[in-house]
Amino acid sequence: MPLDHFSLAVPASKVDPLVSFFTTSLAHMGFKEHIRYGSYIVGLGEENAAYFWIAGIVPEDTDEKTVEAVLRKQHIAFTAESEFLFRFDPSLVVSSVIVFGGDVGITMVGFLMSLGAEQVQQFHVAALKAGGKDNGAPGPRPQYHPGYYGAFVLDPVFGVNVEVVCHKGAAA
After folding, report:
1. 7, 28, 67: which is closest to 164 by C-alpha?
2. 3-state helix, strand and coil shares in percent for the chain, rounded to the nearest 5
3. Measured in Å, how far apart are the chain's first and last C-alpha atoms?
């Protein structure tokens, strides 16, 4: 059964930096802030649905150091698209012009790449630029299953292990 939505409870003072990291790192996948209730509850997701909630807890409700220690043990994985796209590779071009009965065409030589794999790579770059720490460069993870292709970044606020994964591999 698929997961519908979930929340991550964080110290209230860290809600905005964490929202900024997630929206910056996953913007290329359509991820954005959808709704705020007050200052400390934020709904994030794609299209018109908030499925990832960040809820701020005030210091008098808990010990912030304990919460931060727990957050460092968390892992959140977002699924990339599983479609494929054609990626032109000029290094593979043998002949750049083909003549078809008087018409001239260009040879398109390249390879099929998973759109998901590209999203994994884009996430890794964006997350590092947003201050995240590399926790696993984009690549296959056959120890999980044969088509597993993912990247891991520790968020710069708590060190939550954030991943984007494609289950169809990098190329067709």
Report:
1. 28
2. 25, 40, 35
3. 27
Q: Structure pTM?
A: 0.77
Could you report the per-residue pLDDT of 114-153, keeping only the tens digit for each?
578 889 999 999 999 999 999 999 999 999 999 999 999 9
The one-letter amino acid code at 111 reads: F
Beta bridge partners of 134: 153
Residue 42 burial (CB count, 10 A) = 24
Q: Please answer whether residues 170 and 164 qualify as being in contact, where contact means their C-beta atoms are separated by less than 8 angstroms.
A: no
What is the CA angle 105-111-114, rounded to 5?
Answer: 130
Judging by beta carbons within 10 Å of its beta carbon (0-12, 13-18, 19+), is residue 75 exposed, middle or buried? exposed
